[in-house]
From TrEMBL, chain A:
Domain 2Fe-2S ferredoxin-type residue range list: 56-132
Alphabetical UniProt keywords: 2Fe-2S, Iron, Iron-sulfur, Metal-binding, Oxidoreductase
UniProt keyword Iron, yes or no: yes
Protein name: Xanthine dehydrogenase YagT iron-sulfur-binding subunit
SUPFAM superfamilies associated with the record: 2Fe-2S ferredoxin-like, CO dehydrogenase ISP C-domain like
A Pfam family per the record: Fer2
Source domain of life: Bacteria
PANTHER family: OXIDOREDUCTASE WITH IRON-SULFUR SUBUNIT (PTHR45331:SF2), OXIDOREDUCTASE, IRON-SULPHUR BINDING SUBUNIT-RELATED-RELATED (PTHR45331)
Organism name: Albimonas pacifica
MF (Gene Ontology): 2 iron, 2 sulfur cluster binding; metal ion binding; oxidoreductase activity, acting on the aldehyde or oxo group of donors
Automatic annotation (TrEMBL), chain B:
Keyword Metal-binding: no
Superkingdom: Bacteria
SMART domains associated with the record: Ald_Xan_dh_C
Keywords associated with the record: Molybdenum, Oxidoreductase
Any GO molecular function: iron ion binding
Listed name of the protein: Xanthine dehydrogenase YagR molybdenum-binding subunit
Organism listed in the record: Albimonas pacifica
Amino acid sequence: MNDGTGSREPTSPGRRRFLISTALSGAAPMMGRIGPAEAAETGAPPAVTPGAMPTMAISLTVNGRTHRLDLDPRKTLLDGLREEIGLTGVKKGCDHGQCGACTVLIDGRRELSCLTLAAAAEGREVVTVEGLAAADGTLHPMQQAFIDHDALQCGYCTPGQILSAIGCVQEGHAETADDIREYMSGNICRCAAYPNIVAAVADARARMEG
Amino acid sequence: MADALFPQASGAGGRPFPRHEAREKVTGRASFAADMRLAGTAYAFLLTSRIGRGAIAAFDRAEAAALPGVIDILTFEELADEVRPVPFVFEGGYVADTLRPMATADVAHWGQPIALVLAEREEIAREAAGLITVAYRDVKPPAADIDADAAETLPLESLEESVGDFAAAFADAPVRIEARYTTPPQHHNAMELLATQCRWDGDRLTVYEPSQYVNNVKHGLAQQLGIDPARIRVVSPYVGGGFGGKGFLTQRTALIAIAARRLGRPVKLVATREQGFTLSTYRAETRHDVRLAASRNGRLLAHAQEGWELTSRADVLAFGGSEMTTRLYACPNIHRRVNVVRADRSTPGFMRAPAEMPYPFALESALDELAHALNMDPVELRRVNDTEVEPFGGRPYTSRSLMPCFDAASDAFGWRDRTPEPGSMRDGDWLVGWGCAAAFYPTYAADAAARVRLSADGRVHVASATHELGQGNYTMMAQVAAERLGVPIEAVTVSLGDTDLPPAPVTGGSVGAASLAPAVMAACDAILRRLGSDGAPASDALAALAASGQGAVEEYAETRPHGVTPETIGALSRGAAFPAGGVHLPDRVQFAFGAHFVEVRVHSRTREIRVPRAVGAFAAGRIINPRMVHSQLVGGMIWGLASALHDATEIDGRNGSYMNANLADYLVPVNADIGEVEAILVPEEDRRVNAAGVKGVGELGTVGAAAAVANAVHHATGTRLRSLPLRLEHLLADGG
């Protein structure tokens, strides 16, 4: 499998802007990033009191909203999103970075939230599947394409597939069916909706770029 | 656009409506078991055994217990007999494995739950589990697999059958094939992990757990806990892939229910991927000796298949798939035998096409060997031996479209351009091979119930405790009700996956549509009768409701398919309804059919095996929704390709552990592994099979596909591989 780095030009600004404006429309006033000073302050090593559970204060910006949380310093971004913020669209399929079900966008780039500590996401923009549709309910073109092409069955890997597919298009790795197969291979679909996923990504790429 | 993507089998069925719950699934709002957020939850982490056979001498848990945030640690020392024994699900009980969780110090296999840590946070529970030291005693080397010397072979005489005189016919026949085929252990590896959440409200328990049979969990758990089943509710509105692995009650559920009761707060377990390999069931490894004999024109004269299937020491489980493979083709002399091989493993279970992946792999490979020996086209060999009646008792197939499927797929694939000589279709560095095989799956159905409500505002609600695994039950039920009551599908809402709803059977054996469609139809028909509009166009129902002055009308219906005996009345409400059909009917046999054609490319130097394209054609009676069916069949075909090339669990013979119990080392297909996969729907009308004329398709696409790949590998290379998965090292070993 190719990890998707190095063989193509970096993501074009146009595609990235499209994503962020689509993903965060309606939430623009809350998009402020945490500055380095604030990040350093909240990211300080946790104070461990004997007899107490280790805890650190973390601020996470997800889908344009900032959440201030007291978390176990070992908390993964995946568990933080699911258990603390309640964004359960992000899924745990292996917890080892092997399946892609937990894929989110971090600063516009697809990343595995099970291999990302929550603390490491501080000061960065996290987008989950809940943040893709417009405020009026209009689906992101990738979400709509997954419905139109029946690119899902049980639906468990679907949020990760959709976010990964958005990243795939923005990286310029969705120009051909073979490219899509290669660059979507980090997201396992055990129901094996692969042919329909390839069709959906190709269709959404046209809609996103059109 | 969507309609063009999902071609309809002409005249055979319904419209390709989009997946009814798709919007919930693409927005992240579909709540799977682990997504339910319960206030005050404590987190559980399991510790599992790290020996293959022996006993626990002692736990040292002081350090774990002292960790801040740890609430409790449960082992057999605390639980002892708290989980009551319940019989095996295939022997009138409920559990997938009769080994009771944490009941004694004994360790029967690697990966058995031995301790449950409860903590305020998942991270702490996990850390604490790592701090527990387990001392074992009486550690013995296990019989780790089907070939282990210490495994015990047990012939199942009740599954032995004969017709004619196999031995004499085989001895006298002009052309004979005799070969052994094997299939490996495989694990479902649904993307969703095995999660369980339990919450007690007073003496009432709610269980959130992905399940293919919520009423099995409810009633089995009630027996394990010794409480009235009316006090248990099991909720599972979305299942993140089942494939058989979430079929029946596993050991974890009672442990979490007991933990939640002891703590007086909800408890959540999300088992790790590795733990899932031994917490639930799996497809056991199998071995098959097939003997075929034919006349020079290809007519089968003798057919024998002896199978061996691995099972645990605790439970005898055998699928005995030769009951189907020996009934597929005309033949006067047949013999079949089935053995189980007991080893020190957890109890295996259903996995997509449980009998119908391994047994047909053997038969359809052997037929290809026979065709080669006869110098006969493998499609024609099937045609010569096609039959309208099964060869043991002469019972008729309710419908049989095997050869129409072969012909449709053969045409679409371009089979006529095949040159039969192995190695004759080289393309540059790639050796090209084309192979084919039959697909068939028994049509089962079970008792089922549904409730339908038609409201004066035009809305319809359908409810049944069936399950959505991705096969399309939400869509199918909405579509059947919409058609029957003359409302648009958008007006229909569906509730399922909840024991508070009308009972439904296990969602396994591809029974969903064949069981539920008749129940939904019957409830709708009862509404039409109440309104006096039965026999009138469906669109009259709403007008009749308006005329009646009622705000809504609701009806409940229970249906019983052909072959389900009256003795099973009540089984549905006890969570013990089992499907009937296939070859188990007195007057007929019922199957769906198909045919696979695949192209493989084997690299001439590296022996890498690729499958750039696969074409399947399938006939399964009335197709309610061709889009859902198409997706199921394509997914099933890819499962078959995966069995051919990927799926296999590796066992360490020293301790019975699974060496590749994670998604990096256990190979499942990824997108780049899959080329063009085409599924053609062949029109078929079967008015006898059930009231809806429906045959299940969830497993059909998987059956036979692995044999088609193996046959194509032989055509490409001249090397016959008889053990799954087919890997490049096997071609190198043969000298290529």
